[in-house]
Amino acid sequence: MLDVKAGDEQSFALLLHRYRSPLINFLYRMVRNREQAEDLAQEVFIRVYRAREDYVPSAKFTTWLFRIATNLALNSVRDNRYQRMEISLDAPVTTDAEDGDEKTLDVAEKHPNIEQHLIEETRKKMIRHAIEKLPEKQRAAVLLHKYQELDYGEISKILECSESALKSLLFRAYETLRVELAPLVAQQGKQ
Amino acid sequence: MSCGRMEKKIMGYVDGRLKEGERLEMEKHLSTCAACRVQVNEFRAVNVLLDELPMIEPSAAFDVRMQARVAAEPAKQSWWAWFAPSPRVAFAASMLLLATVWVGSYSVSNPPQIDQADVPVLENYDVISSFEALTELSQAVPADDASQQNQDM
Prior knowledge:
heterodimer, B: mainly alpha
């Protein structure tokens, strides 16, 4: 980021290449819409680009990046709350890449054992929906902790809460997931 | 450790982020508390289930749109840039400065000349300007013409 600050455009391209995928995945799981996630990711990178000259390395770059992303995602989720309530969680999302794998045309090509494939997809859907049902801040905490593997200090700075509050957020989120995914958790326990 | 303190420690234990002392304390509690043991195992199971979600790849359009947006961003100038204007502006500003200095030095070396005879008039200008009788006088005539008129009379 310091190279970007110094005006090195190539470094910004590298930064973009390195962080675009984790950022889009985080935003996708936050806002539940791929197109919107990519729009938000662009907004995050544009804000980083605009602020490059004022960047002060007081915190890790990932903390700064995901703080911008989390704020944008939380605002977007709140803005779309009424729209979201009208959409059934069980409705198929055709633009969703993960759900896109469920298309019948792909099934026979990728999975000779259709029954096994359907079981796997049902599991993924359950997990995805369980995450989606978490309150926004708990969801952000789980995503940053589990998928971005950030440490507690970084996540608490991103979510603007104490480490103690973050641990409570994660505990409550996992408690909810444990209940929501009880059948899968039981299966997992037997394995 | 009591079950109540598990809330703050359990995630750290499940993902292996606890310090050695805390981990040992946790394991000591788990060896005697079946409920907490179940909870830890189920949190671990949730953790494994979360790994099953695949990552999505950015669309092909993402990079193209991103490049276009970055290219459309105006070049940012620092505040110092205000002091480094274009050559034309710099030339105009220096000409204006030279002209100001020249006019200033000229007026200092050539102060306006005031005839000593006019000083009493200027000192009493306010009184004279509002003295109505003066406005009724005929137009002033040059001194030579006035003396000629007096001789004629």
